[in-house]
């Protein structure tokens, strides 16, 4: 029997793409003088048998199919066949080491044994040393799945990902160690224990610049640090900013520094080096070395290729003069898109030249001056061919298309696209952030297709509230507003979800009650496009309210005030002075019925009063967004008049014996209200803008004759949150004034203020409000406000003084959720005392508001 030869035939070369677990080697034992193996002179053998050792869980037949060798195959030893077999085993990533042994040789037959080291599989991951909230994030970052093959590369990558996770949070000294241990429950499985020691968070101690020497005012360290939006020093000025160093944000901030240099004419500025080093265990410094280069200026700007508009017109719009500091970004803005005014492309694109483009080329750089040649391609005017919509799952196409200003057959106009985007945003059915208008030019035939892609958002609202209404007792409210209602599908029950929708109509229902004491019901319907062809709206509303006086002993009603009203209104969109204007006219019939009802304001307890009013409102609304406007204005003038009954009623109003119920059987007055609101972006941002909202509001109620006076049913009531209370039953306008109690800002009379439920016939209110968005997602919008406001009410022109107002300041927040509308919470501090109050009276007031209140 031939002595068993154990010859290790390991590959004689390295494959760089194999796992580092493999130790590739070749050992030849000279225990048999007949065996002479040489890499330079391989010999041929027939495979007598192939066996596998070292395996516990891998299947023998599966391994045979992987290596591709069979008994009887003729191979060279050493040779390519064995190399390929080992390569195929490696490719499966199931093994950590391979040794091929020749157990014996009989003639020309060789008997091979593949000794394998199996890789373990991952059964689970345990993480120690971290907060519970980080567990899921870390597992997601590592990306490991149960059953995966565990390799050194896997462990190394996992360690790197975990450490980077904490480095991005500012833990630059974080230490991560991953330990393997066998799983006692599952064979050939291991548990990876990730031990994390975050150590202390590392903050930026200082950011130092070197080489910024040319302009101490514009290029000081302080100015350059301000250009870094995310990378901030740890100091009191940046108390609300993060001072951790995040690599990708730091790189972006370095680019912002160079962009800032470019705006100042330093066209060749560059950061030549930077260094980050620890100065303490939890503090680091950043040194940035800048090479500024020369400062450049514009010299000659010439135009070529322009035939439609002369160079002088284009120069005027570009508004860059010889000797101006060279600022290529400014040049591009004036050429393509200028947020602060007109630009050259607007001149062409608004006239249909969709294919226009202009390329600025530096044709000469001499000393500190640069000559620019504007190479213009005007192309032909484009005509709109097809207008389509996509993404609308609820709103019907015609509701969207009737709002757009780009119609097939018209010339293309960029301003029409911008206006269409605004109109669709104002509907409130779509997410303004995801509204996308895609023009598709067709140069071959000089046309353009336009697609409006929208993303639906919830627009219906529900109001469910309960509270304590003072002497009303507990008050409950249920309200439903369907802002995208469809009346034509009301009989098609398949479209109900919960009611038919998609036609842009508005249906609102509201019920408010406080047991037997107070109930009010209202219903309104609005069709914004009456007839479907023109933007003419129809509004119909009905309401019914009752206030009972309850005997506290018997708990029975002893009297009541009934208020019934019906309103029909027509509105239209105007085209002059521009198409931001609207005109609305309405007629309201309102009846008051009193039975043993006591009121200091009315002066009588039994009778009927009728109020027939014609109201006209002219308004201009150019705000760019409903939820968080950043530009535009909202201005309106409302005039409400009743017939002048005192001029033809057979009543002597000078006769003081006439009972109030007879004097006010037909209510007469004329009411004027002006509201003004402007929005301006003070500090623009990529996602968040600091916005200033300035508002001014004025109102006046007058009568037709001095003898008849003004009916007591219409008044201005100011103070508090501006939510309706008892006064709305008498037609009063409720005007909020944060920082002051509800309904407490009353006109001053010689013998003191008027009764609390009377109000004034004139008012003025001024508001300055800073707004900053925190989150503007369609499902939940939140922005903070800081405000200064002032207001007052008067009873006649003699006492009117628009500067004699009660002032307040404060902060608050606004939350917008589609299901509930706008909700506001404010803390106001009044700067003045009301009459009858002393200095010890609590000056702070918390107010809660619902809805986008203009006054």
Shape, principal axes of CA atoms: elongated
Number of DSSP E strands: 37
Distance separating the two termini: 109 Å
* Count, helices: 12
Low-pLDDT windows of residues: 1-35
| Content-based structural category | mainly beta
Radius of gyration: 40 Å
Q: Would you write up a description of this structure?
A:
This protein has 855 residues and is mostly beta strands. Helices cover 13% and strands 41% of the residues. The protein has twelve helices and 37 strands. The strands form eight sheets. It has a 16-stranded antiparallel beta sheet with strand order 18-19-20-21-22-23-24-25-26-27-28-33-34-35-36-37, with no helix packed on it. The radius of gyration is 40 Å and the shape is elongated.
Short description:
This protein is mostly beta strands and 855 residues long. 13% of the residues lie in helices and 41% in strands.
């Amino acid at each position: 029997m031939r002595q068993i030869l154990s010859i290790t035939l390991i590959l004689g070369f390295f494959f760089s793409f194999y796992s580092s677990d493999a130790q590739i080697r070749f050992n030849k034992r000279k225990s048999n003088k007949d065996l002479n193996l040489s890499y330079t002179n391989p010999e041929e053998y027939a495979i007598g048998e192939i066996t596998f050792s070292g395996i516990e869980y891998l299947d023998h037949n599966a391994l045979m199919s992987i290596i591709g060798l069979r008994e009887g195959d003729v191979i060279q030893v050493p040779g390519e066949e064995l190399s390929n077999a080992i390569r195929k085993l490696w490719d499966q990533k199931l093994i950590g080491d391979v040794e091929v042994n020749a157990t014996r040789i009989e003639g020309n037959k060789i008997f091979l044994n593949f000794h394998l080291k199996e890789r373990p599989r991952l059964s689970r991951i345990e993480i120690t040393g971290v907060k519970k909230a980080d567990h899921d994030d870390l597992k997601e970052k590592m990306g490991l799945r149960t059953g995966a093959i565990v390799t050194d590369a896997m462990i190394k990558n996992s360690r790197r990902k975990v450490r980077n996770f904490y480095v991005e949070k500012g833990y630059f000294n974080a230490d991560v160690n991953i330990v393997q241990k066998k799983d006692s429950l599952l064979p050939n499985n291991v548990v990876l224990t990730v031990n994390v020691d975050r150590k202390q968070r590392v903050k930026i101690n200082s950011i130092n610049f070197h080489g910024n020497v040319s302009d101490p005012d514009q290029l000081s360290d302080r100015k350059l640090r301000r250009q870094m939006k995310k990378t901030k020093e740890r100091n009191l000025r940046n108390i609300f900013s993060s001072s951790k160093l995040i690599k990708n944000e730091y790189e972006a901030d370095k680019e912002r520094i160079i962009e800032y240099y470019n705006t100042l004419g330093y066209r060749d500025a560059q950061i030549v080096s930077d260094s980050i080093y620890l100065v303490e265990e939890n503090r680091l410094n950043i040194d940035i070395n800048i090479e500024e280069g020369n400062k450049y200026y514009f010299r000659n700007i010439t135009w070529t290729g322009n035939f439609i508009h002369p160079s002088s017109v284009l120069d005027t719009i570009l508004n860059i003069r010889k000797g101006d500091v060279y600022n290529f970004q400014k040049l591009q803005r004036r050429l393509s898109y200028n947020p602060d005014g007109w630009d050259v492309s607007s001149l062409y694109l608004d006239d249909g030249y969709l294919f226009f483009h202009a390329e600025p080329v530096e044709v000469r750089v001499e000393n500190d001056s640069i000559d620019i040649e504007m190479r213009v391609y005007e192309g032909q005017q484009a005509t709109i061919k097809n207008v389509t919509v996509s993404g609308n799952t609820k709103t019907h196409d015609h509701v969207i298309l009737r709002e757009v200003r780009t119609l097939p057959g018209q010339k293309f106009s960029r301003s029409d696209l911008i206006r269409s985007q605004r109109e669709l945003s104002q509907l409130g059915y779509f997410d303004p952030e995801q509204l996308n208008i895609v023009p598709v030019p067709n140069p071959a035939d000089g046309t353009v297709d336009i697609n409006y892609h929208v993303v639906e958002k919830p627009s219906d609202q529900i109001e469910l509230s309960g509270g304590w209404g003072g002497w009303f007792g507990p008050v409950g409210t249920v309200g439903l507003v369907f802002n995208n209602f469809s009346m034509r599908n009301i009989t098609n029950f398949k479209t109900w979800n919960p009611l038919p929708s998609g036609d842009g109509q508005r249906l609102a229902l509201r019920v408010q009650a406080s047991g037997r004491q107070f109930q009010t019901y209202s219903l309104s319907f609005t069709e914004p496009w009456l007839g479907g062809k023109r933007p003419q709206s129809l509004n119909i509303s009905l309401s019914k309210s009752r206030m009972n006086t309850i005997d506290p002993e018997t708990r029975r009603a002893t009297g009541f005030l009934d208020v019934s009203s019906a309103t029909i209104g027509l509105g239209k969109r105007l085209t002059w002075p521009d198409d931001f204007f609207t005109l609305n006219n309405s007629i309201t019939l309102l009846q008051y019925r009193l039975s043993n009802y006591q009121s200091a304001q009315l002066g009588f307890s039994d009778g009927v009063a009728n109020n027939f009013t014609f109201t006209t409102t002219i308004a201009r609304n150019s705000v760019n967004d409903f939820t968080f406007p950043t530009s535009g204005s909202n201005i309106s003038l409302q005039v409400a008049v009743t017939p002048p009954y005192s001029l033809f009623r057979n009543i002597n109003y000078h006769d003081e014996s006439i009972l109030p119920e007879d004097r006010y059987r037909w209510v007469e007055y004329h009411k004027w209200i002006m509201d003004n609101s402007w929005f301006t972006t003070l500090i623009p941002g990529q996602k968040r803008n600091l916005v200033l909202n300035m508002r001014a509001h004025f109102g006046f109620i007058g009568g037709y004759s001095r003898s008849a006076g003004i009916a007591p049913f219409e008044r201005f009531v100011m103070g508090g949150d501006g939510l309706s209370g008892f006064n709305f039953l008498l037609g009063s306008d409720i005007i909020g004034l944060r920082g002051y109690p509800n309904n407490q800002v009353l006109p001053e009379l010689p013998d003191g203020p008027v009764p609390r439920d009377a109000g004034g016939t004139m008012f003025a209110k001024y508001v300055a409000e800073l707004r900053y968005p925190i989150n503007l997602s369609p499902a939940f919008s939140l922005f903070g406000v800081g405000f200064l406001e002032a207001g007052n009410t008067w009873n006649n022109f003699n006492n009117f003084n628009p500067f004699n107002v009660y002032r307040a300041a404060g902060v608050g927040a606004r939350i917008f959720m589609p299901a509930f509308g706008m909700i506001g919470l404010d803390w106001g501090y009044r700067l003045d005392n009301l009459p009858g109050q002393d200095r010890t009276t609590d000056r702070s007031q918390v107010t809660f508001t619902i809805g986008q209140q203009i006054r």
